[in-house]
Design goal:
The protein is 5% helix and 58% strand. The chain has 176 residues and is mainly β.
Length: 176
């Protein structure tokens, strides 16, 4: 059976995350440099082969000091670990447009399995005749599972940075 390759459209995709700050508000960030491909044997994408690579030095939260701290050895340690990688181990249709994406996330030199909820937006032809596919992904990881342990205790109790990281990802792919 023949496969179809899809490549990321980075101008219409976002790799975002949110982390609680001081236990009561969220700080959002994203990676602005990334690449992803999908290989599939059918148009519903079930059992697709999915791979993603992101450049750690492209992290941005809207605050230069915080971004510099995130790139330091306290967090991502970009000098030693310049990329984040994900490789799907399964992509399973649950019902309708709802899927479960399971794969190996390599971050900070550690590889662990993660599970994400995926919504397949469908396939459409853009105004220039290109076939596009869209996906929305959500999930949660514990940053300490990847050795991202830095924190600071608050005088009032709790910590400065939550261990839980919520992932919010919007992807558009172009058929090759």
């Amino acid at each position: 059976m023949s496969t179809t390759k899809w490549v990321i459209d980075p101008t219409h995709s976002e790799i975002g995350f949110k982390v609680k700050h001081m236990m009561f508000t969220n700080v959002s960030g994203q990676f602005s440099k990334f690449d992803a491909t999908i290989e599939t044997e059918n148009e519903d994408f079930e059992n697709a082969k999915i791979e993603f690579t992101g450049a750690i030095d492209s992290v941005t939260t809207g605050n230069a000091d915080r971004d510099t701290h995130l790139l330091s050895a306290d967090f991502f340690d970009v000098a030693q670990f310049p990329e984040i990688n994900f490789k799907a181990t399964s992509f399973t249709k649950i019902k309708g447009s709802d899927y479960k994406l399971v794969g190996d996330l390599n971050l900070h030199g550690v590889t662990k399995s993660v599970e994400l909820v995926a919504e397949f937006g469908g396939i459409m032809k853009d105004p220039w005749g290109n076939n596009k596919a869209a996906f929305s992904l959500e999930g949660k990881i514990n940053r300490k599972d990847w050795g991202l342990n830095w924190n600071s205790a608050l005088e009032t109790g709790g910590v400065l940075v939550s261990e839980e990281v919520r992932l919010n990802i919007e992807l558009q792919f172009a058929k090759q």
